[in-house]
Amino acid sequence: MTENYTALYEQHKKAGASFTDFGGWQMPLKYESELAEHHAVRNAAGLFDLSHMGEVWVTGPDAAAFLDYALVGKLSAIAVGKAKYSLICNADGGIIDDLISYRRPSTEEGADKYLVVPNAGNAKVVAAALLDRASGFDVTVEDVSAETSLIAVQGPNAEAILLTLVPADQHALVTELKYYAAVEVGLTFDGGTQDLLLARTGYTGEDGFEIYVPNVDAPGLWEALLEAGDGHGLIPAGLAARDSLRLEAGMPLYGNELSRHVNAYAAGLGPVVSLAKEGDFVGRDALTAIKAAGVGSTIGQKLVGLKGTGRRAARGHYSVLKNGSLIGEVTSGQPSPTLGYPVAMAYVDVEHSEPGTIVEVDLRGKAEPFEVVQLPFYKRQK
Known about the structure:
6-stranded antiparallel β-barrel, Elongation Factor Tu (Ef-tu), domain 3, single chain, 6-stranded mixed β-sheet, globular
């Protein structure tokens, strides 16, 4: 697999990061301690390099109608400045990727403008699928992933840290920004102030922000954020902490909980699918039939949370059993640093998916009890 390096690779090396391949990218797995990084995000703040993610601009008079066709959600209903979580699916209802789309102000009269953000390993596939589906629409699809970096500040102190880099007359743009919304805001670093897209989104279960920045400016912004976070408990955090944080928050990871072999209803993402929107969309017929059949509710399997009653953690691909019979498989699992007990997500047969159900997970030859629980495992106090 080709190795890609983000614009922040040298910053990570200087900070002593351990690297791992993720979606073809060399990404920091951790710096000193993944546990310390996890707790920093829950209690103070963590700084993440997410530049492996994709960025695709969709613009033109038909942009809203096009995304209504290309994705399963009703993207035309997003207000300018807001964002929406959605899925791009195959005709058979299988999930190509989950993604966030931001509706941005358009400078072209009569046109709409969206930023679509796919996951790292799927960025090129999603961009190609969007281009393929654009036939017949007055729309431009531009993949700017290669020149765009993405930096996230996550945790209860994220807002205070951001405000130290934002001009005083723009503070309200940050403090009043709602979850799943974005705004252009001035950030001061490298001796000047640059307007950048700031989104109040994240993948940790905490308050936080994601900042889109040209590659050439990413190192300066990273260093400025680290300096601004000094005194606020900010430390850089890697993929290991990001994974434990998102698991506690019950957020699916493509390649674990989501894939082309999984549909939205089994994954608990039925509300993301808008069967009520007008017109056709890719996967509509298949998803209509899947929902009507009761997949994820009365037949098939369903994604659930599992809480360990012992100390040993379940891991991905471990078998889930009921009275010795196979009923499912773990997709993600590890000890929860925040909660102090093992947590996991798993697909299990729907008849065993009710919260409170006791199942067993085969932990390398020994069946250990786990309780089916409602997701998420962790929800921050607001």
